[in-house]
Amino acid sequence: MKAARKIIRFIRSRSWLPATLAFLVIQLIFIVFEMTSWMPNFREGNVFERVAETSFFTESFTPYSKPELNLLTAFFTVTLIPSAIISALYATFSKKRSTS
Asked: Which UniProt keywords apply (predicted)?
């Protein structure tokens, strides 16, 4: 019975949902970019391009064929996923009683 209450509290408090949905939508957009070979036009020679062209984003971390998408995926993974996990854990293990 206690486990069922935790699951219900987890589903009711949806503070983890926006970060998770944002990450999934961004990944779907990147998949469309990859399938259609369409890519935003980034200026050449800036810091973003130099970081994207490092060996980590061209050889090691390559979920996409474009290094720019790999860099953006790494950035959004580092920023959105921990937020969603922390919010989900807080919603699950919070001692606060829900009123609704």
From this structure: Membrane, Transmembrane, Transmembrane helix
- Total-model pTM: 0.72
Distance CA 73, CA 1 (A): 40
Nearest in space to 36 (alpha carbons), one of 84, 78, 69, 81: 69
Distance CA 64, CA 55 (A): 14
Question: What is the rounded CA–CA span in Å between residue 57 and residue 38?
Answer: 19
Report the length, in residues, of the chain: 100
How does pLDDT run across 41-82, given as a tens digit for each residue? 777 778 888 888 888 888 888 899 888 899 999 999 999 999
Burial 5-44 (b: 16+ CB within 10 A, else e): eeeebbeebeebeebbeebeebbeebeebeeeeeeeeeee
